[in-house]
Specification:
Its EC number is 1.5.1.54. The protein has 299 residues and is α/β, with parallel strands linked by helices. The chain has eleven helices and eight strands. Helix 6 links the parallel strand 5 and strand 6.
Amino acid sequence: MAFANAQYLDAINRNLQDVEGKVNVSFEFFPPKTPQMEQTLWQSIERLAPLAPSFVSVTYGANSGERDRTHDIIKSIKQRTGLIAAPHLTCVDASKEALIDIARDYWQNGIRHIVALRGDLPPGSIAKPDLYAADLVEILRSVADFDISVAAYPEVHPEAPNAQFDLLNLKRKVEAGASRAITQFFFDTEKFLRYRDRCAAIGIDVDIVPGILPVTNFQQLKKFAALTNVAVPTWMHKAYEGLDNDVTTRNLVAANIAMEMVKVLSREGVDHFHFYTLNRSELSYAICHLLGVRPQTAV
């Protein structure tokens, strides 16, 4: 038994050595709605900033209040940490003229990276949007030389009629000037790898960055997944079974699953991972630490 355990630990060490020093990361946050949530957000940003992420992004709501909060947080992150801060920007609820004004304001404030999205349609809406993400990329490119990230969907966007349509839509965004694509969260690494191959096959030549979600609340995840067309594997249901009231074990399970995904994808040549933090730093920091992404000032 001792020999078997030694072999197991040796395998873990080899896996970690395979990825150590080869991983780039970025983190996503959302605008806080209360003073307490804002405190938690800044604690998380300050905890993760020493890891020198490629960028940090902040999500965006569909009304002016949410937009203003995103803008304020983005500017504060840049001023307080020096990190590259990337606001999400949606076009479903804005005119071309308004988007140009927003883009100019970001550029004038030193914001060079934007995550360009169509955005969610209003509840119950069946009207065809005036603008899509590819149009937004074109608008941003017409304003300035932004670094532009767009969304990708390994398991197909919920509104897309089929996978090929969805893939061609991504290609339109890239041809319009997108710099990279960040995927919706997923849990089946094979699906991501097949998707990456399909992207390459039709000439999509930008990085496809996997979105990693460490799952601390499995019940909430099931609701998210149903809305976003993300499959939750049977093994995950079993892994979280009986843990509704056991936060500590849920966190350990979440970290292990995310780490295994990153190790598998790293061995397949993926070198950038985007973590959906949900404004919490603990799991993302721990995962990065074990993958060799550590404060650059550390000895």
